[in-house]
Write a structure and sequence with these properties.
Length: 761
Amino acid sequence: MSKSKSSEAVKVVVRCRPMNDKERASGFERMVSVDVKLGQIIVRNPREASAAELPKIFTFDSVYDWNSKQIDLYDETFRPLVDSVLMGFNGTIFAYGQTGTGKTYTMEGVRNDPERRGVIPNSFEHIFTHISRSQNQQYLVRSSYLEIYQEEIRDLLSKDQMHRLELRERPDTGVYVKDLSSFVTKSVREIEHVMNVGNQNRSVGATNMNEHSSRSHAIFVITVECSELGVDGENHIRVGKLNLVDLAGSERQTKTGAQGERLKEATKINLSLSALGNVISALVDGRSSHIPYRDSKLTRLLQDSLGGNARTVMVANIGPASYNVEETLTTLRYANRAKNIKNKPRINEDPKDALLREFQEEIARLKEQLEKRVGKKKRRQRRRAGDGSDGEDLEEGETEEDDEDGDDKGDYWREQQEKLEKERKAIMEDHSLVAEEKTRLLKEKEKKMEDLRKEKEAGEMLAAKVKAMESKLLVGGKNIVDHTNEQQRMLELKRQEIAEQKRREREMQQQVESRDEETLGLKGTYSSLQQEVDFKTKKLKKLFNKLQAVKAEIQGIQEEHIKMRQEHEQTQNELTRDLKLKHLIIENFIPLEEKNKIANRAFYDDEDDCWKMKPITRIEDDHQMMSRPLSAVGYRRPLSQHARMAMIMKPDMRYKAENILMLDMELPARTTKEYQEPVIAPKVAAALENALRDEDEIQVDASGFHSSLGPTPPASASSSLKKPKSGRPRTGKKSNTPTSPFSPSSPGSLLYPQSRGLVPK
Ligand code: ADP
Ligand code: MG
């Protein structure tokens, strides 16, 4: 299965985005400089106090500054990777970095602008152009799109966006997402459509897209299968899988102050990303034999891309402004570590799960069926012809060949139909037949025609199916003669050459740099003592600077380490507290027996990564079920000896507990009636409604209202307003009676509001 066993390092490139308008307007200083030729990123320290501190220098495979074009990145860094995917290697591109530094810009870019399209759309173009130029090869391209958010996998192409997918593992093909939908795409337009659908689904359900995308990982997967005739005369299939990963923002989610659910959420959000960091550390450490892939969904899913069978490119995105410096340094250190991961990519030849093989087999099967069908027809035709009615004859060998094309088939059907029609007419016109006989024969013929039609339809359907399946398999070599295409190809080749040259130049420069330092110590002969002193002083200075840089780096890493440690400790404390609380509840409120039962039933499901409960069974003395008390053997419940005897001897129902069917309580017949509301006249109803309105809505017209007693009602009147002494509910009848003390007609009660229903408007 493998063609190349050699290991190769993960390629790491860094891209620094331009200052945005806001940063420029606020006058932020640029702290990052990029040496494209040398492949170096230089970061100055913004702190005043440490102005004397040397800038930090990081070297990468390639670096891109704010002027870099999408197409440059593609040609230099991504094109070779996609090319190897087309050859049958697995490939992965990660975009890593703080939110707002251009991960999505690098991966997707600006959709409608060809200049600013990112890797994903550019790779579509690349893949399908490659296929159209290929010869004697069959391709099948399919794509999937998924998202990991809070350790849950969502299929962005499925109709049901609430459904969560699980990871599964098979010994032969490794980790995969169960039930992940994948779409066969036949052109750039189709695959773009798939991406757009996914992107739309991504924003569905996200209240704030920016926040959501900064907390979730999006993975676009393109699988390219290619079938080609090998030297051994057999068809061989190579399968390359390209993972395009837009990671969550690498800035740490703040956990400060978060508790309980919120804390767990914050812990979960970046779980995949910190697990990714741990995996990288473990991989480059060299000492650890255990790589914690299983710690998160992301690392499990991309296990092959990290230290496995894949070519991997990591793009680390950084921002240039001073307020980003800390995160920028963290990103650069992270990327620096990733440089040392070694992968073992190989061409995936004839894997068991190649869909192309399935398609080819299915097409062959259907074709065979179709041919058999036609063969059967022909034989039948020949037999009929052999009866000697029409005189047309067929040669013996022809049926065996079965190599007629569509036209012949059409002719055949037409012939058959015409023949049947003729026969039908003949029967109709044949006066020698009895009417009954005639109808019977006619029916027979009609049935035959119906059968013929059905058969034809089935054949057509089969042919359509074959066609549909074949159309999914892409073959090239159709428009290579195209002149523009030829020119374009030359241009592409030239661009690739330039990219390659640039890369080599950079490599050479880097080598020269490192050799300079080495040779410094080799020049051992000096003409004079002074010269030696000068030389050694220079060397000393250089080494001293280097030492300082390393020391500063150590300090930086230590600081970061301490910060992370503190955060972990905080998380641990919170979780311990949570655990203690749960223990407290269990110890004090759950009977020991029940606790043991649950503990016995619980088990950890490795597949689903969660705890589950075994179903309750009666086996042995699992203590899962309460056993029947000894006094009730054979009965549903414990019974006394007397009851048992009475059950057998007496006809009395009382002891026949097992026979009781009616378990409801028996109730006496009702002696009361349901309350029915009295019928209210419409006028009264309106008045009532008015009276029940909110206080503020009521406009009280107090103009004609004068009081000599002041605003407060007299105490006696107020007490008379209170509830009637008896506990019975008020009937409400009184409120409108003219004798009411509150009524305006009564001059005695001065300061009561008017009855609501009668407010003059
Ligand atoms: P991320 O996905 O890392 O959160 P985005 O890709 O959304 O960041 O980028 C944030 C903003 O910066 C976007 O408006 C994007 O257009 C802009 N941007 C990022 N990188 C570049 C670049 N290299 N050139 C021009 N604009 C960029
Ligand atoms: Mg983004």
